Amino acid sequence: MKRLLLLLSLSWAISTVTRAQLVALKTNALMDVALVPNLEVEVATGNKTSISLSAFGSIWVMGQDVKTLGALPEFRYWIGGRPMVHLYMGVGAMATTYNINWKHKNFKGDAVGLGLEFGYDKPLNKHWNMEVSAGTQLAVYYQHMYYDGDSYDPKTHHKDNHGFKLLPYRIGLSFTYIIK
After folding, report:
1. Contact 20/44 with Cβ under 8 angstroms?
2. Which helix (H) or strand (E) holds 52?
3. d(CA 69, CA 74)
4. Which uninterrupted H or E stretch holds 114?
5. Which backbone phi and psi does 68 adopt, to 5 degrees?
6. For a disulfide at 68, which of 21, 48, 98, 156, Cβ 3.0-4.6 Å?
7. 3-class SS at 56?
């Protein structure tokens, strides 16, 4: 709850400083269906630009023991015109921490990445938009990997598995409420 209040306070501060024409709250419905609650705040920063910050977290994903917490800041350039209308291209980052138990294997670690996203915003009325987005990112991860029943102490065990992965980034169907 404290992190959500911090996110909302940060968004309010950004909108006050930039004197934005548009401020919006959104949620990615695909993540919601997968039981990963998420909230994003987007602020227009110019005639064709906006910034956004998305936070997500979960303790149970699609019936699996998956604990995750992360943030996705992003800069968007609106190709089709003004912010939050039509086609855009976004460049963003991702930071997450996770603890996954999958088929008797456990993965506990952190990941950061940079991504490129394309999307389209469809205004539904004065205050509501629907957004479709998809992209890809290059992520670096550091994790512990161990099996159920292993004697494992995370305080003494260093990150034993790391690497890079090309992953999907911000695949979504989002619903946006435009505040201002």
Report:
1. yes
2. strand 49-58
3. 17
4. strand 105-123
5. -145, 150
6. 98
7. strand
Specify the DSSP class assigned to residue 64: B
54/95 Cα distance (integer angstroms): 11
Question: Residue 101's Cα: distance from chain center in Å?
Answer: 21
The backbone region for 174, taken as left when phi is positive above 0, alpha when psi lies in -120 to 50, beta otherwise, is beta
The DSSP secondary structure of 139-153, one letter per residue, reads EEEEEEEEETT----
Q: Report the distance separating Cα 176 and Cα 131, nearest Å.
A: 7
Q: Which two tokens stand for residue 29?
A: 């419905």
Where b means 16+ CB within 10 Å and e means fewer, 25-36 reads: ebbbeebbebeb
CA distances for 72 relative to 16, 85, 91, 156, angstroms: 21, 21, 10, 30
Alpha carbon distances (Å) from 50 to 35, 44, 55 = 28, 4, 17
Calpha distance 10→153 (Å, rounded)? 36
> What predicted TM-score, i.e. pTM, was given to this entire model?
0.80
Q: Are 22 and 41 in contact (CB under 8 A)?
A: no
Per-residue pLDDT of 52-109, as tens digits, reads 999 999 887 666 778 899 999 999 999 978 898 999 999 999 999 999 887 888 888 9
Whether 82 and 115 have beta carbons less than 8 Å apart is answered as no
